[in-house]
Amino acid sequence: MSIRSFLLSSPIFLGVFLFQEAFVTQMRLPAGGINLLLVIALIWSALSTPEIGALTGFGAGIGMDLSQTSPGPMGHWTLVLIIACYAVAFLGYGDDNIRGNPINIVLLTTIGVVASQTVFLVLGLMLGQQIGSIGNIIFLLAGSAFWTAIISPLLLKVVSYLHANIFGSRAQL
Amino acid sequence: MRYGGDNRGRLLIIVLVVTTLFLITLDLRGVQVINGLRTGTQTALTPVQKVGSWVVSPFRNFLSDVTHLGRTRNQMEKLKTENDKLRLALQNRQVADAQLKQLKGVLNLAGTAGFKVVNAKVISQGSSTSFTQTITIDAGTTSGIHTNMTVLSGYGLVGVVKYAYTNSALVQLASDPAFRIGARIAGSQQIGILSGQGTRKGVLQLLDNTTRIHTGDALLARGSDNGRPFVPGVPIGEITSVSNSPGAVTQTADVKFYTNFSTLGVVAVVVSGASSDPRDSLVPPKPHPTPIPTVTIYATPGAISPSPTATK
User: Is A68–B170 a contact, with Cβ atoms under 8 angstroms apart?
Assistant: First the structure.
């Protein structure tokens, strides 16, 4: 892992963060919509080594914590994403059955999004936040899974291309 | 080959997690640097969000139409008959009309109560990914908006200003799960606590179990000291169902908010409350059913031509 590669990927995540905050949140998509930064961070991690996955989670998590819509303390999303991105990268690392198959990456990302939100929720409860009705939570989690499963295949090609160009050595999907 | 990890990798994970826990601790202890980071980010994002709001507006209208297909079907059928240019002009006009209608409504409400308000456009709706319900408006501290101010729509309560930035403000909607407000029933003056549930429905917990509440009762804000965070008398919603469990310590009821949070375009922030409590004067009037004219025909044997008589 090189610092240069990590720094090169920073503008991409900054751009995604700006796009998410300025455009995606305006769309008012049904069923809670989608968080592009979360999805792209997980796809990026699925293509990376566990160390880069954890660093990606850290960077993306800081971005999500800086978002005005984040209800928790600074570091809440960061902690969740370090764990989630590391876990996703760890599961896929060295296993070409997962890494080389786009369907498996989409599945891994979708499960990762739902798991991240669930962990975020549990951490929020531990930090004393209100979470609302169970029905609404299940609806939002299902909505997130739906939107991630729809958007991930569309993003995968672009993210894979950018990842291959920055880290060089990996085969592009 | 399965990844087994090495010392360098483990050290990195530990450093990142410890840094994150450090950040959480700093934020929970109220360190100003962390708050400054968020404020700075929001200040930098506001112009981008305004551009985004302008760019996304046509797509948002389209998505809204798809979501509310049943309600806008008649409108869509009319639009089908017109050409593309007229359709675009009509859509732009509809956006302006909707905002004007909302603005008129909110000014009427604020005027009746005697509130001093600052109007603002909704420039962003918070993502539900974090299980919160928020909107961002395009007016901030430079317009006299500060935290803990009541936010209204033409129908009633929208929420409360959670954070005020230089040119924008984050509003916590009444539907947010963390939202709590002291409320009273119009007429009977029973008091209770209303909490958001993440949807357009809230739950009212009455403080007194001896009196009865009924479906359709209107709910108003009780108000706070100096009108912050809530000015008194603002309509919140109406009771849709009452739960009267014999063994329960308190009565609870489901409340449907008057405001439709998914269609907010223009809102007003109450910067100064009324000199006197408006009491029940802001309760919206009950809708009156429009009489349907019926035609009765009396058939008289032997008559040449029966004439219809219109009755109401």
Answer: yes
Distance CA A124, CA A15 (A): 27
**Which range of residues forms the domain containing residue B130?**
82-284
Alpha carbon separation from A37 to A63, B162, B166 (Å, rounded): 8, 24, 26
ipTM: 0.75
Cα A160 from chain centroid (whole Å): 14
Q: Please write the tens of the pLDDT for every residue from B170-228.
A: 999 998 888 989 998 888 888 889 998 888 888 888 887 777 788 888 888 888 877 78
Put simply, the answer to whether A140 touches B197 (Cβ < 8 Å) is no
CA–CA gap between residue B87 and residue B64 (Å, rounded): 16
Among B61, B128, B179, the residue to mutate for chain A (most A Cβ within 10 A): B128
Which CATH code, of 2.60.40, 1.10.1760, 1.20.58, 3.30.70, is assigned to A3-167? Answer: 1.10.1760
Domain ranges of chain A: 3-167
CATH code for position B146:
2.40.10.340
Each residue of A1-38: pLDDT tens digit?
Answer: 566 777 788 888 888 888 888 777 777 677 777 888 88
Q: Which is higher by pLDDT, B237 or B30?
A: B237
* Residue B134 included in any domain: yes
**Residues of B (107-146) whose Cβ lies below 8 Å from A:** 123-132, 134, 136
Q: Is residue B305 part of a domain?
A: no
B52 assigned to some structural domain: no
Which site among A2, A16, A28, A39 would you substitute to test the B interface, given the most B Cβ atoms closer than 10 Å to its Cβ? Answer: A28
* Residues with Cβ within 8 Å of residue B161, at least 6 apart in sequence: B145, B146, B147, B148, B149, B151, B169, B170, B171, B172, B229, B269
Domain total of chain B: 1
> Is residue B254 within 8 angstroms of chain A, CB to CB?
no
Q: Is residue B115 part of a domain?
A: yes
